[in-house]
Amino acid sequence: MEIIADIASLRARLKYETSVAFVPTMGNLHAGHVSLIRIAQQHARCTVVSIFVNRLQFAPHEDFDRYPRTRSNDCRLLEESSVDVVFMPDEQTLYPVSQEFQLLLPVMAETLEGVYRPGFFRGVATVVLKLLNIVQPHVAVFGEKDYQQLQIVRRMADQLNLPVQIIAGETIRAGDGLALSSRNHYLDAIQRQEAVELARHLRQIRDSIASGERDFPLLEQLAIEKLSQRGWMVDYIAVRQQDTLLPASADDSRLAILGAARLGQIRLIDNFLLMLQ
């Protein structure tokens, strides 16, 4: 495994690779990231993983400074996972000057996470586009846990004619159903036990719809009320069309059930996908 910190060296290393798969991360890696790496390795001969905590996607009040940076553990995990190249740039490498050019994003970026984290998707799209231009992979793998982000990246790659195939990796969960996340380490023991409730309520909505329920606003409101009664501060619970993330109707067959809520100062997101016949 090679660890590379500068763009010129990375491009030189990849120049003669005939198939490259890329997994962008912010580090603090866990089994969910390993699952994305395994998918990448099935699609290319050379696998590149980046580790970069992207300041542009953090609001001033968010956790950029305390976001977990676990370089030694991350590199050990990547070595064990047989990753070929780790791209680990610093801020000066990716942003040598103030990033004045940023994308104008679609309406999809203004809903759900876009409401509660304004500017987030602009920062994500900017760094993903830069990384794809630097690595120039044939395949890039993103997790379904950040479903809205995945859909925005897919649209960006399609509409900007990027020569890369975007592949989704399914959400990896702990034994009790909690979606794995780098921010889960913020949870104390009591919060960790409670954290699974978000996934449980989203799963209940999925199962109710699968059983024939079509009053989506009612299902959303009931879940919000139940979580609020347990002390959660709910940003949204939403049943949406998978491809557009517009509010779903009873006639839609490809659904995403998404939620974001806070336990104290800790914000968790999750989703379940449902295909109706």
Structural account:
Helix content is 38%, strand content 21%. It contains 9 helices and 9 strands. The longest helix has 22 residues, at 189-210. The chain is globular and about 55 Å long.
Structure described in brief:
By secondary structure, the protein is α/β, with parallel strands linked by helices. It has helices at 7-14, 31-43, 71-80, 91-94, 113-116, 120-135, 147-159, 189-210, 216-229, and strands at residues 2-4, 20-25, 46-51, 85-87, 139-143, 165-169, 233-241, 254-263, 266-275.
**Averaging pLDDT over every residue, what do you get?**
97
Number of helices: 9
Number of strands: 9
Major sheet: size, sense and barrel closure?
Answer: 6 strands, parallel
Distance between the terminal alpha carbons, to the nearest Å? 45 Å
Give the percentage of residues in beta strands.
15-25%
* CATH architecture descriptor text of the largest domain: 3-Layer(aba) Sandwich
Topology, element by element:
Elements: E1 2-4, H1 7-14, E2 20-25, H2 31-43, E3 46-51, H3 71-80, E4 85-87, H4 91-94, H5 113-116, H6 120-135, E5 139-143, H7 147-159, E6 165-169, H8 189-210, H9 216-229, E7 233-241, E8 254-263, E9 266-275
Parallel strand pairs: 1-4, 2-3, 2-5, 3-4, 5-6
Antiparallel strand pairs: 7-8, 8-9
